[in-house]
Design the sequence.
């Protein structure tokens, strides 16, 4: 990436200052072992006994104590106010994939902003990780190795048409849009294959995080462990 200020050959766990569980952070780091904090996420990292390899953001939330503990050589300030700290991290970090933890919960507007960031970076392998769900922007063609009965929710971030196999309720013949038809609470009949012509978020239960990573085509060399 032309504007990258930090590079990782393995997956990056992006840590925000929103709601998070220590277990979710620990799980993310086993898969994406490089830790990057978005602004105030640096304080959350230190509270968990973790030191981020980089801190990126407008730096209006990070504490003075966190600045001192992490050191100026690992902290980058991006002063523009047109984008969120989550967006700033994605725009300035080069990595094979990202797991974003702590970018939701609490204020609904923050969670909605995070979903918008997913849609704004279609070229990234990026998964938002919450306590109950994982969310990612589907590529134009996606295969997921799921078992029958698995909840598969689809939410369009623009106009979308598509085809699907392996879903209880198919997509053919429908126009999907945020203010029109959406596809929440669908159900897998087994492995799922999607072909889409627009931006569609996929929501799975947290337990299917590894299936989401595999579906996005993350190379094994980028995984931790």
Sequence:
């Amino acid at each position: 990436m032309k504007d990258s200020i930090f590079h990782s050959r393995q997956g990056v766990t992006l840590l925000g200052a929103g709601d998070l569980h220590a277990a979710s952070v620990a799980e993310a780091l086993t898969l994406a072992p490089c830790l990057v904090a978005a602004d105030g996420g640096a304080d959350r990292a230190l509270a968990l006994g973790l030191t981020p390899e980089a801190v990126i953001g407008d730096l209006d939330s990070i504490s003075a104590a966190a600045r001192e503990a992490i050191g100026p050589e690992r902290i980058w300030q991006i002063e523009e106010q047109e984008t969120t700290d989550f967006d700033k991290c994605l725009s300035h970090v080069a990595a094979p994939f990202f797991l974003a933890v702590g970018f939701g919960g609490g204020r609904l507007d923050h969670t909605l902003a995070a979903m918008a960031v997913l849609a704004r970076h279609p070229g990234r392998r990026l998964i938002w990780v919450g306590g109950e769900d994982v969310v990612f922007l589907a590529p134009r063609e996606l295969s997921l190795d799921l078992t029958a009965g698995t909840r598969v929710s689809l939410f369009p971030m623009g106009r979308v048409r598509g085809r699907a196999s392996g879903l209880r309720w198919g997509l053919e013949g429908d126009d999907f849009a945020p203010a029109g038809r959406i596809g929440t609470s669908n159900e897998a009949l087994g492995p799922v294959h999607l072909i889409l012509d627009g931006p569609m978020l996929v929501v799975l239960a947290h337990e299917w995080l590894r299936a989401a990573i595999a579906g996005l085509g993350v190379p094994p060399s980028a995984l931790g462990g």
User: Anything to note?
Assistant: The chain is about 25% helix and 30% strand.
